[in-house]
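User: My collaborator sent over this chain with a note saying "see what the structure looks like." That's all I know about it. Can you take a look?
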Amino acid sequence: MKKSGILQTYQLRDSRLHGNDILNNFFQKFRKMKGEKVSKRLRETIQENIKNNKKMLSLYLTAGFPDLELTEKIILACDSAKVDFIELGMPFSDPIADGPTIQKAADRALQQGVNLRRIFQLVERVRKQSDIPVILMGYLNPVFQFGFEHFFEECARVKIDGLILPDWPVEESEPYQPLLNSLDLDLIYLIAPNTPKARIKKIDAISRAFVYCTAYTGVTGKDNRPLPGTEQFLKELKTKLQNPFLIGFGIKSRQDVEFYSQYAAGVIVGSAFIKFLENSDESKIVQNIKRFVQELRGY
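Assistant: Without extra context I'll predict from the sequence alone. Here is the result:
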């Protein structure tokens, strides 16, 4: 039977693993893994905020921007500032969802030699000091080059909480859900205002933590003015999704946070945070991040 799509290409390139053999190999390997499983802290964080009627704030930063040492300090500063969870970007040369600001940050990180191995080392250091949930966001090509088995193994080892891989469609990632679930590793899917309703329903059905809703179609960092129909789309999501959803792309001000928080469980701020870091005094990064978060939240 002929397979199609991204994973077909990757499976054919890897002569050792094909089709269900990949999953069987993973399951056998992870059954033998020792040590603590990844906690359910991402889902627990989300549910606790919903229970307390508190809107969530997540910040995106690119691993290695401005550099890896500062990335560690920034994550810890975000934890100190009561950011709910971190979206940590895995820099890649050919992103499909990132706008110019995040592309520039990724280029700078790549020029410093940042790769998945160094990112896992970074998260391992953070885990010794903080339990803030961390979601890795990136693209499938580096994951394939690193090795699917090795990638998931390292995610479990350093206690990554979730993954956002925009070019790994639900049709091709769904067979991996049992494995990811066994590791308490939540795969976060993106939807947009032009996503077909049937597809939204399918994504909602297999999601466990939350659904990532983009405020518009296109790449990150654009001017974020709700288009006609956006408000109705968000109202429908609020009433029909069984999972909470957070809104990202173009969120840059307190006004944006207030508008989108009417409908969503919270927001994700990316390009605006990268620009803030680019212009921030590195010696005052902790105080500056606290102020940045307070300005977004209004308290």
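A starting point for your reply to your collaborator: The first helix runs from residue 6 to 13.
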